[in-house]
Amino acid sequence: xxxxxxxxxxxxxxxxxxxxxxxxxxxxxxxxxxxxxxxxxxxxxxxxxxxxx
Length: 53
Description:
Blueprint: H1 2-7, E1 11-25, E2 28-39, H2 44-52
């Protein structure tokens, strides 16, 4: 999942925070983390053209 976020052309400054290994949820242990990111700048005109195209 993190790889997909990092390679997305629509996101920048993807960072992982607060990694917790072995957090129990639903009777199973999981790796839990928080992710922060910013959307890359796309001029609204370009977005409109992409949707219409």
